[in-house]
C-alpha cells in the first residue's frame, strides 16, 4: 500500500470513529445501562458452571446468575447513594463550621499576598453551598442510574438467559469459529480479572482508610471507607474523589492539622496501593498500558456519562477486541496498548495475512 493510500485509510478510519462516537454519545442514555448490564453479566456468568456440574437444572443456575447480577447492581448504586447522601447531610450539619473555616482560609490567603482572583477561586471551591451543589450533582447522576435500574435488570435477565445458550458455542462452532471464540473468552476473562483485582485492592484500601479516619476522629469513617471502596473502581483518579469529603470534614472538626493528616493518610495508603501497586496488577490482568488505563477514564466518562468511569477498562478492552485483534496488520497498535501477546509477524502464513489486510481492496 502506498503512503498516500495508507494516509487516506487512516483519515477515513478517524472520520468514521468520530461519527460512531458522536452517535454513542447521543445515545448514552440507552447505551450506558446496556454496557453496565453486559459487564455485570460477564462478571457473574461463571457462577453457573459449578452449579450445573453439581446437577442443578439450567433454569436454576440461570436464576442464580440473574439474582447475583441484580444484587451486584443494587450494591453498587446503593453504596454510592448512601455515601453521597451522608456527605450532603454532613455539609448541611456542619455548615457554620465550614463557613468559619472558609473565612479563616480567605484571611490567610489575603495575608500571604494572593490577589482577589485566587482568593475568590479558593472561596468558591470550599463554599458550603457549592459543596452541597456538588453532592447534589453526584446524587442526580446516581439517581439517573437508579432510575434506569429496571432497564439494567432486564438486560441482566435476558443476557444471563442467552448466556446459558452461548456457553455451548464451543461445542457447536468450536472448529469453525475457534479464533473468534478464543478472542471472546480472552475478553470476558480479562474483564473478570480486572474487577477481581479492583475489588480486592478496594477492600484493602477501604479497611485501612476507615481505621485511619476512625483513629484521627473524622466523623462517619465507615461512610468514607465505603466511598473509598467504590471509587477504587475508577482507575488512577478514584482516590481523589474519595479524599474530598473526609478531608473537608477533617478541616471542620480538627482544623488544618487534621485535614493535612487525612490527606497524608490517603497519599500514603491510596497513592501507594491504588496509583503505584494496583495499576501494575491491572495492566498484568488485562494487558492494558498504564497511560491508556488513565486516559480511558476521561474518554468514556465523556462518551457515555458518569457510568463510563467505572466501565472504562471493559469498554477499552472491547474496542481493542473488535477493531485491533482481528487485524494482523495492526499488531503494533495492540502492543502499544499493552497487549504483550501482540508479537511481531514471524511466519510466512502470517505475513500473507498481513499483506492481504493491507491491500487497498481488503
Automatic annotation (TrEMBL):
One matching Pfam family, short form?
A: AI-2E_transport
Chief location: membrane
Q: Where in the cell is it found?
A: Cell membrane
Keyword hit for Transmembrane helix? yes
**Sorted UniProt keywords:** Cell membrane, Membrane, Transmembrane, Transmembrane helix, Transport
Membrane topology designation: Multi-pass membrane protein
The answer to whether keyword Transmembrane applies is yes
Q: Which residues cross the membrane?
A: 7-24, 30-47, 59-85, 134-158, 194-216, 222-244, 256-277, 297-323
Per the record, GO CC terms? plasma membrane
Annotated InterPro entries: AI-2E-like
Concerning PANTHER family, the annotation shows: PERMEASE PERM-RELATED, TRANSMEMBRANE PROTEIN
Q: Which family does it belong to?
A: Belongs to the autoinducer-2 exporter (AI-2E) (TC 2.A.86) family.
Annotated protein name in UniProt? AI-2E family transporter
Amino acid at each position: 500500500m502506498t503512503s498516500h493510500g495508507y494516509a487516506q485509510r487512516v483519515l477515513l478510519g478517524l472520520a468514521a470513529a468520530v461519527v460512531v462516537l458522536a452517535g454513542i454519545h447521543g445515545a448514552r442514555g440507552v447505551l450506558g445501562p446496556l454496557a453496565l448490564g453486559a459487564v455485570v453479566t460477564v462478571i457473574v456468568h461463571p457462577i453457573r458452571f459449578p452449579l450445573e456440574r453439581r446437577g442443578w437444572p439450567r433454569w436454576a443456575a440461570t436464576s442464580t446468575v440473574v439474582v447475583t447480577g441484580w444484587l451486584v447492581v443494587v450494591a453498587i448504586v446503593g453504596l454510592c447513594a448512601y455515601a453521597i447522601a451522608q456527605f450532603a447531610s454532613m455539609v448541611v450539619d456542619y455548615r457554620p463550621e465550614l463557613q468559619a473555616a472558609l473565612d479563616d482560609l480567605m484571611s490567610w490567603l489575603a495575608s500571604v499576598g494572593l490577589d482577589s482572583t485566587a482568593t475568590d477561586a479558593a472561596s468558591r471551591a470550599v463554599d458550603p453551598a457549592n459543596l452541597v451543589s456538588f453532592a447534589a450533582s453526584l446524587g442526580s447522576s446516581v439517581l439517573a442510574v437508579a432510575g434506569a435500574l429496571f432497564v439494567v435488570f432486564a438486560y441482566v435477565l435476558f443476557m444471563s438467559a442467552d448466556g446459558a445458550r452461548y456457553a455451548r458455542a464451543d461445542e457447536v462452532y468450536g472448529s469453525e469459529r475457534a479464533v473468534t471464540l478464543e478472542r471472546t473468552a480472552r475478553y470476558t476473562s480479562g474483564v473478570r480479572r480486572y474487577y477481581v483485582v479492583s475489588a480486592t485492592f478496594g477492600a484493602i484500601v477501604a479497611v485501612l482508610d476507615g481505621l485511619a479516619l476512625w483513629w484521627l476522629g473524622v466523623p462517619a469513617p465507615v461512610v468514607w471507607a465505603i466511598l473509598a471502596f467504590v471509587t477504587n473502581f475508577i482507575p488512577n483518579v478514584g482516590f481523589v474523589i474519595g479524599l474530598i469529603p473526609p478531608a473537608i470534614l477533617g478541616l471542620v472538626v480538627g482544623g488544618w492539622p487534621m485535614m493535612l493528616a487525612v490527606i497524608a493518610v490517603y497519599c500514603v495508603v491510596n497513592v501507594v496501593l491504588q496509583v503505584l501497586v494496583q495499576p501494575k496488577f491491572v495492566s498484568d490482568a488485562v494487558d492494558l498500558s498504564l497511560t491508556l488505563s488513565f486516559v480511558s477514564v476521561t474518554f468514556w466518562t465523556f462518551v457515555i456519562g458518569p457510568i463510563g468511569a467505572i466501565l472504562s477498562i471493559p469498554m477499552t478492552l472491547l474496542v481493542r477486541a473488535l477493531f485491533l485483534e482481528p487485524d494482523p496488520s495492526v499488531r503494533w497498535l495492540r502492543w502499544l496498548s499493552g497487549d504483550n501477546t501482540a508479537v511481531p509477524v514471524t511466519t510466512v502464513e502470517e505475513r500473507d495475512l498481513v499483506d492481504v489486510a493491507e491491500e487497498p481492496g481488503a
